[in-house]
Amino acid sequence: MSGEAFLFTVFAAMTCFSAIAVVVSQTVVRMAFWLVISLGSTAALFFLANADFVGAAQLLIYVGGTLVLLVFGVMLTASGPYMKIGTSTGETVVAGLIGLLFLFVVFASVSGVNWRQPVTASADNVATGAVGNTLRPLGLSFLGARPESGVLPGEDAAGTGYLLPFEIVSVHLLVVLVGASYLARAKRRAVPVNQVV
Amino acid sequence: MVGETLRNLLMIAWLLPLVGFAVEIFGGFWGSRKSRTAAWLAVGCIASGFLCSASALVIWGNANHWSVLNKQSHHSAGEHGEHDAHGEQGKGGHAAEPAPKAEHGSVSAQGPYVLTAAVEEHAAESHPAGPTVYSGTLYYLARIGSLDISLDYYIDSLTLVMFTMVTFIATCIHLFAMGYMSEELTEEYVDHNAHLSNGHHVHRPGRFYRFFAFLSLFCFSMLGLVLAGNIFQVFIFWELVGICSFLLIGFYTERKSASNAANKAFIMNRVGDFGFLIGLMVVWTFFGTFRFGETVDEKGTVVQAGLFQLIQRDETGNVVRDAESGEVIIGAHDAALTPGNSRKTIPYALLVVAGLGVFAGCVGKSAQFPLQTWLPDAMEGPTPVSALVHSATMVAAGVYLVGRFYPMFVQEVLLTIAYVGCITLFMAATIAVVATDIKKVLAYSTISQLGYMMLGLGVFGWGAGLFHLVTHAFFKSLMFLCSGSVIYGCHHEQEMPKMGGLWRKMPITAFTMLIGVIAISGLAIPGLVSWSTIFAFSGFFSKDAVVATSLAFVKANPSHFLLFLMPLLTAGITAFYMFRLWFYTFAGQPRDHHVYDHCHESPLIMTIPLMVLSVLAAFCAIGGEQGKLYLMLTGDQPAHVAHGVAAAAGGITLPGHDAIHAVHNQAGTLALIAAVSGTLIAWVLYGTNMVNVAEMKRQLAGLHGFLANKWHFDELYDGLFMQPAHIVGKFCSWIDRTVFDGIIHGSAKVVLFVSKWDRLFDENLVDGFVNLLGTSTFAVGRSLRVVQTGRLRQYVMFIVVGVVALFAILFTTFPG
Amino acid sequence: MAADLNAYLLVGAVLFVCGVVCMATKRNGIGVLMGVELVLNGANVNFVAFSRYTDLGLDGQVFSLFVIVLAAAEAAVALAIALNFYNNHLTIDVDRANKLKG
Q1: Partners of B143 in the beta sheet?
Q2: Cβ <8 Å between B800 and A99
Q3: B318: Cβ–Cβ under 8 A, 6 or more apart, which residues?
Q4: Are B509 and B601 a contacting pair, CB within 8 Å?
Q5: Chain B residue with the nearest C-alpha to that of C100
Q6: Upstream peptide bond of B384 is cis (omega within 30 degrees of 0)
């Protein structure tokens, strides 16, 4: 068992375990905790898969940003510490059974499909996702250039970059920022505060 | 320039009443019912019109140095050969004596008439022979093919005199009407002659403004008729005048008799207008133009000759006819006949038809036999209407048109006109003798006098007929206004047997009426001023002219002796019934003390027009045929009138001026004798108590009944036209009810049957299908509603289950 | 357990199913959001795995980056909605949001 396989097994287990823990946890704060673990482990998996930049982004944006946001949300909406909103047992059982069924179906399909031959890391395809060190190629592709293009058979020489989607995503983020702040702004209540139960 | 000035002046006089009408009818509708503004506006419009007309007359006279007046003085002085130095000779010669005719020769005398006449300056400056006529086009209405429909003007002395006369009389009558119609100045007018079904009187808002608006519209129409420069335009205004008459006769529209009378007048006129239209068609077909005068383009060149130039007459006064075919030649007959340039001709018979057709219109409008019955009924309108519309102007329009269209009439047409006039004048006069309604007497007298005019025109007395038209307009409007004054004073009592002795109560009315009666009777005092002149009121001179013309005519054509005897006899009858009216109304003892006690003289606004009109009725024709009025009127008379028409083979001779002049004294004497005897009889019967009139009436019951029933014309028409129409109508209604209704009912039943089945099909099949669709959709929605729980988590579950199900299907379908 | 494509895909599947079950069972709105994050992460794992083990190349990574960004945006907006919901209902229980019940 190589080191890589060992690490993969550890982090995969962590990921799966903490994801299940998120489902099982009854309080939001614990859910958030287990989610952090799960997302962090996923980032580690990304590093293992040679996707260094994606892993970094995962850590920064998800673990550092989104999760904090969620925690803020928890704090802003919780009427008390360790608030629980229970789910009926029947529902939980049904959801669990269906989830297991779904998992089975997905497992079955994943193992049933004959995926393309895996690509091995080599000096020829230095710029592909198979070898890591993806920061520069990714940045270039966002600017519209694809230095690795033409490497693969049947690929166009140019014009397959991601400049336009990148710009769209940027604008999208801006719009979301504005929209979110608009939605979440403090509103004047229709009834005076002292009358609210 | 003179032409333009005249045109503008007359146009103002013509259009002002139209403006007045528009303002009055709308302003009055929204204004107060008690306001006299409408009346003052109407008076202002028509009075300004009179001023314009009068000044136009003066301008016209100055422009030709009053040559019409001067030339005739030559005639009276017997200086036949002497003519004005500046080229008046042609005209003077034509109007005066046959002597110059020889000088000019036929072609040169007729030629200028054919070729020049019409237009503006070049007519006035060169003083050609023939009438001075200003004609042109005001406005193009439409062009249909080669037919121009336009508003033209045609101004000659007749137009000007008519304009002045109409506007003047209309002004007087407008003023009078302000007093007469003052009862309408109220918010609630009680019409005592109109009853509702429950026996109450009709209450309605006053219609003062409407009356004057209609009067204004009438003036506009009448003046347009006089000014008209083509026969189609005449027709347009002819109908407008008709509609005004309809509106005014039916002014008291709540009275059944009034609305009936309005309908009657309108329908009778339509009968005549049918003939008019036929005449128009003939004229258009053969002459290709409706214009009286020439059509001139911008450069002043003549594009097309007018109607009056297209018909030519040779030196005998007969129309020029083609030697071979006998058809009447249209256009210049002496033009060289080249191959390919054939003459336009019209069959003589069709020319007669055209003339008769136009005359038929005149018969209707002027209430001549056999269409005379509408006029007495038209007395249902207010009295000022009777005075203006049904005695002085509108009915005179028929006479005017005959005079205007005179160049187109040939002998046969003229003879018809003469006989129609002759029958009319006698018949109407006899009916007037027994009429007891004061307005009816005047109405029949009007018909009779219109008959005189027609007769005068028919026997080739162009001037005489129109002369009588003008004088009659004055004295008849005067008498109608007097009768209006009487009716007003007696609180709408019109029956003469209830009056009597009224001169004590209303001296002004009685006196002015007496002047009118003398004028129409034709009384005269010979030798009062000097031996050569006769002192008389206007009616004498004009009637004298008519009678003299007919005498000359009869002398030339002895077989038509009735044409002289009847008017002579009728002159006596006229004097009789007019004095009967006066004696009945004003003289003697009061017969109905209720009426007498309550009657009173009318206010000044009504009596002043009476006095003004009486002066004119008395003196307007002073001088007779050497008087200014006659000379003005005949200044532009058709060229062939002056020297008569020699008889063609087997034809009729029409007398010229010299022939008429020769018998003038004789005719005048006879007419005067007739008039005086008529007056005396009237005085004996009604002025004194020597004869018991009632006894006479009983003894002559048959004759009296015949006359009182208006010669049974209404019954005759009832039998001739109404009953057949009723029978045809009944037959049609029977066919309608049995045949057409049967068909319609049958088809209705079929449709009903079909629609029943259609309904079944619709309700069961179509509706069933649609309903099924609707209910099934509803049911599906109903059942799906359960799924929409609104719970977020369930939806997620559904998604998962759906995905799983999809995969399950996929795996089972494509195993491996 | 070898680190090959199938292993990654299985991890992604577990994450995905956990997310779905989380969404289906949590009545807390924030919990539902966490489920969504898990689902997105599962998808991300798949993308990266395909990028690594097939000739997809960088495209997979780029997609996963977009997904991360979109997830962040989604989280922001969803949180705003959740706050609004909380403001209006004084609770974060999504079962109370059943106004659209048929």
Answers
A1: B148
A2: yes
A3: B411, B645, B646, B648, B651
A4: yes
A5: B790
A6: no
ipTM of the complex: 0.90
CB nearest to B793's CB, from C94, C99, C101: C94
Please report the pLDDT score of residue B745 as a whole number: 92
Would you tell me how many other CB atoms lie within 10 Å of the CB of residue A173?
15
C-alpha C10: how far from chain center: 16
Q: What is the pLDDT of residue B97?
A: 34
Give pLDDT, residue B8: 87
Q: Is the pLDDT of residue A79 over 90?
A: no
Sorting pLDDT into bands at 50, 70 and 90, what band is B335? low
Instruction: Tell me the three state secondary structure of residue B630.
Output: helix
Amino acid occupying residue B705: G
Q: What angle do CA A27, A31, A36 make, to 5 degrees?
A: 150
Please determine, for residue B787, whether its predicted confidence score (pLDDT) is greater than 70: yes
Residue B526 to residue B675: CA distance in whole angstroms: 14
Structure token digits, residue C83: 């706050």
Helix residue ranges per DSSP H, B31-66: 37-63
Q: What is the pLDDT of residue B190?
A: 80
Tokens matching residue A52: 């260094």
Q: What is the DSSP string of B240-282?
A: HHHHHHHHHHTTSTTSHHHHHHHHHHHHHHHHHHHHHHHHHHH
Q: Answer yes or no: do C48 and A49 touch at CB < 8 A.
A: yes
Q: Which candidate from C23, C32, C99 shows the least CB-CB separation from B790?
A: C99
Whether B73 shows a pLDDT value over 60: the answer reads no
Tell me which residue of B642, B615, B607, B598 sits closest to B498, measured CA to CA: B598
Task: Assess contact for B272 and B361: CB atoms under 8 A.
Answer: yes
CA dist B507 to B272, B488, B575, B587, B609, Å? 42, 14, 21, 11, 15
- C-beta of residue B359 within 8 angstroms of C-beta of residue B275: yes
Q: Residue B811, SS3?
A: helix
Q: Do B793 and A98 touch (CB under 8 A)?
A: no
What pLDDT does residue B503 have? 81
Q: Of B97-101, B419-423, C1-5, give the range with the top mean pLDDT.
A: B419-423
